[in-house]
Amino acid sequence: MKESPMTRRGALSAAICASAVVLSGCYYPPPAYPVQVPASFDRSFAAASGAMRDQGLAVNVEDRGSGTIVGTLGGATVTASVRQQADGSVRVQFDANGPRDPALIDRISRSYDGRMGR
């Protein structure tokens, strides 16, 4: 018994469609969660300086070499220390001296986190 060319064409089309459906199931989308990258020293230093300015401090010292930023607001002096750790991470610490607003360091820290995308 001989098959007609239309039957072969239909079978071939069905096989191609089935292959396309099977192959399309192999796609793996990128992760839906953000991938965290270690912060760089430069980015952390800029964010610390910007956070102090965001909260109204006048930045008097900005020494990238030593990782020190000093700003004043009223009678308070705030110092930010940005240090590269041995494991490659960056540590940022804010300290305040003198008469100050007790929530100032917290506001600077939140501003820093916002600038770092946290």
Distance between the termini: 72 Å
Major beta-sheet overview: 4 strands, antiparallel
CATH fold group of the domain at 41-115: TATA-Binding Protein
H/E series? HHEEEEH
Strand arrangement, major sheet: 1-2-3-4
Strand percentage: 15-25%
Number of strands: 4
Structural class: alpha+beta
Compute the number of helices. Answer: 3
**Rounded to an integer, what's the Rg over CA atoms?**
29 Å
Q: In CATH terms, what is the architecture of the domain at 41-115?
A: 2-Layer Sandwich
What is the mean predicted local confidence, pLDDT? 84
Helix content: 25-40%
CATH class of the domain at 41-115: Alpha Beta
Overall morphology: rod-shaped
Provide the low-confidence segments as ranges. none
Question: Would you kindly provide a brief summary of this structure?
Answer:
This protein is an alpha+beta fold. Helix content is 39%, strand content 25%.
Structure, described:
This protein has helices at about 5-25, 40-55, 105-115; strands at about 60-65, 70-75, 75-85, 90-95. It is α+β, with helices and mostly antiparallel strands and about 120 residues long. It has a domain at about 40-115: TATA-Binding Protein, CATH 3.30.310. The chain has a 4-stranded antiparallel sheet with strand order 1-2-3-4, covered by helices on one side. Helix 2 (about 40-55) packs across helix 3 (about 105-115). The longest helix is centred in the first third of the chain and has 20 residues, at about 5-25. The N and C termini lie far apart (about 70 Å).
